[in-house]
Here is the input.
Amino acid sequence: MPILSLHNVSKSFGALTVAERVSFDLRAGEALGVIGPNGAGKSSLFNLIAGNLRPDSGRIVLDGRDVTAAPPMQRCLAGIGRSFQIPQPFGHLSVYENLLVAARFGGALSADAAPRHCMDILRRTGLAAQAERIAGSLSLLQRKRLELARAMATEPRVILLDEIAGGLTEGECGELVATIRQIHAEGTAIIWIEHVLHALTSVVERLMVLNFGRVLVIGAPDEVMASPEVGEIYLGVAA
Amino acid sequence: MTTRTSSAFGRPASIAGAVALAALMFAMPLIAPRAVVQDLFSILTLLVLAMNWNLLAGFAGLVSVGQQAFVGIGAYAMFAAIILWGLDPLVGALIGGLVAVLFAIPMAFFAFRLQGAYFAIGTWVVADMVRLAAGQWKALGGGTGTSLPKGTTRDMIGVPLVKSVLGVSSAAAADTVVYWLALGLAILTLAASFYFLRSRMGLGLQALRDNANAARSVGVDPRRIKAIVFLLTAFGTGLCGALIFIQITRVTPDAAFSVIDWTAFVIFIVVIGGIGTLPGPIVGVAIFYLLQRLLADYGTVYLILLGLIGIGIMLFARGGIWGAISDRTGIELLPLRHRPPSHQPVVVEQEAARPAG
Here is the structure.
């Protein structure tokens, strides 16, 4: 049974369609990459899965349970953790406190267990030295790491990563990929939106291409990237 | 700006200082003239109102301009308990707090549908409606209000005992009892605010204030937490309102539901002291009292000056006076920060200390 299923999910804002009958399954522990041109509806897809947007039609099923009408906090408690494309830290709290909120609420960890859990994640994401810094004072790259770390702190079964590798150096990107591989190896299912294709394809088992809110193609990364349609629409190469 | 994130007064020294201050405040009726005790009562009750408003606006982001509703409801419920049901004023004060909570429940259903400025205006409108309704309560004097029956405070719980132990008049003993109650309420409100904000709920509340969208996505339920804060502050404000009018001994709709006395001054106190910080209202009420004493003879000019000071602080020191002190010195009184395990104090680059709401 898939851990997450979308059945004909659609969402429009007036004439603008951000999701049109989107359907796919995500297997437990699977890593799925999402690519598509700007405005293809990638971040809107995350907002629909995480509950920040309510679909106009269609169903979202998490682990056999229909969560289409559930608000974001309930989806988080049900096992969906997310990062935001534009980082949204709790600006007046420290980096450590940002994770503590996620661990105590989304992860439902006890006051005894949460601190160790948070420090462990901060070490894994390279933020341990910044634990006491006010999150609002972090650089953009550190904020992106914090997005990943905070999502991890909720102990998700499905983690949604939205362009967290953008702007990283090769070395930083390598560290990030190693961290995501580790999350994947621990059995967490991943949906990762990313423009840094080599990083993405080195982790994911399947790749999904979105265009104008529709699923253009979904399959093994090599096959998807070799598809003439993808070459034409996403990479700008004539078929 | 470089500041020390972990600086705080030594814990034993802080506790000793706080206990000494509380002991001095407790002893004031024994060593100070009655007028000073009455002044301190006013300061303490304003402090309680300010701490409640700070929790609501500074930490929960609920900028209410209608807290006078709970002051008035607390006062009127207390008067009803005494005049209509023959209860002791202190029991009446507790009832005042509880009735304020009961009123806050339907008010929350309405007000929580409003955001930002609409929430502020909505709460003000509700408070004014309650003021008009109180004016229709004929049993409590309608629009002209009513007074406590003669001898009510003289026979209040604790007053005969204080009178005999201290050897003072009934009126002075009543002042002493309500002063001690206001002191106890101020300490309790401060302690409750501190422990609430340090709790899981408090952490979620601060996350919500910083970024509601992200907070929801990590499992924080905004309605539940904000509703808890709204009800708790309604209780504290209602109880305090009842206490204020036990001392005044007379209630009218205009006095009990005064937006100037119970909300505008309270907002001024919190803003100049430091919104979103626990010591802020304490600093703010001290400054407000000093200004009131120094400028009281200047009438309208005094209010204009208060307004100018408030505007100046909002423009140039948004964290208030306590925020500015804390930023410059790194001192954190009543620190709310959760430290990582095996914390070692570190000096780091930091652009902002605690928030300005």
User: Anything to note?
Assistant: The CA atoms of residues 182 and 188 of chain A lie 9 Å apart. Chain A has a mean pLDDT of 92. Chain A has two domains: 1-79+156-239, 88-155.
